[in-house]
Amino acid sequence: xxxxxxxxxxxxxxxxxxxxxxxxxxxxxxxxxxxxxxxxxxxxxxxxxxxxxxxxxxxxxxxxxxxxxxxxxxxxxxxxxxxxxxxxxxxxxxxxxxxxxxxxxxxxxxxxxxxxxxxxxxxxxxxxxxxxxxxxxxxxxxxxxxxxxxxxxxxxxxxxxxxxxxxxxxxxxxxxxxxxxxxxxxxxxxxxxxxxxxxxxxxxxxxxxxxxxxxxxxxxxxxxxxxxxxxxxxxxxxxxxxxxxxxxxxxxxxxxxxxxxxxxxxxxxxxxxxxxxxxxxxxxxxxxxxxxxxxxxxxxxxxxxxxxxxxxxxxxxxxxxxxxxxxxxxxxxxx
Length: 335
Fold this sequence. Notes:
Layout: H1 3-11, H2 19-48, H3 54-64, H4 68-71, H5 73-85, H6 87-96, H7 98-118, H8 124-154, H9 162-187, H10 194-220, H11 225-228, H12 231-253, H13 256-278, E1 281-283, E2 288-289, H14 290-293, H15 297-324
Antiparallel strand pairs: 1-2
């Protein structure tokens, strides 16, 4: 690269694009992608707790087996993007909430280790222990992730807060919504009909959780009611209600792919609400705005070029992965 091209990259954003805002959207988009893709794995783990038949439990493990470890890549990509574009936010946010971070990582490790250990021996006591570990990791991971997101939004340095608990419960319910649709899609008649009813109950719990969350945020956010009742937030909430109704209808009719797409819309909608309420800040606790926390122009431009090249490759990998393991799991298929 010549000195002239380096100077050009350091002098202003590529093509005059609003790169700080685009990276803000990208960071939250990556978080939403992780929450959806690994979310249905978490939801499947929570539903696993309601099943007592060995064949049904094997069907759950077989459904998520090819995907769960790949889905966790998006959490790494989210952290990498936050570190690359907003290093001060990454440092401050993760250091303030290191207990939650370790909790999330511990839950992910437990959720990943448990199915492997579950399959190693087939005596009742062994499988009961590791089955419970699988459920615990699948519930704790989204709950702690939700607590982290809630605390990030209101700018608190405490690990456990009212808003964190409320958002954590809401996110956990959302993962069950995704998990029920995914399991119905992948296992079809291999699981009892109670999975559908669990999904319907979860969508009601999620929508109630959204309302309670907004009520708590109206009290705790600096802008209060004005922020919660802003046009973008109300539009996203209305869209969530519509998607929730569509999800319920699709699940009842057996249109499981439609239900899963609706669950994806709900997930990205929730992340969009968090982003809208936070904007233009990106670290309320430290008083950092997007433009105040962004890296200098040269690395920002170089990272933008790299992201434009690498993210399509990652997306292509996942398209191939999901295509290769498309279709329902077969009877007797093992994890």
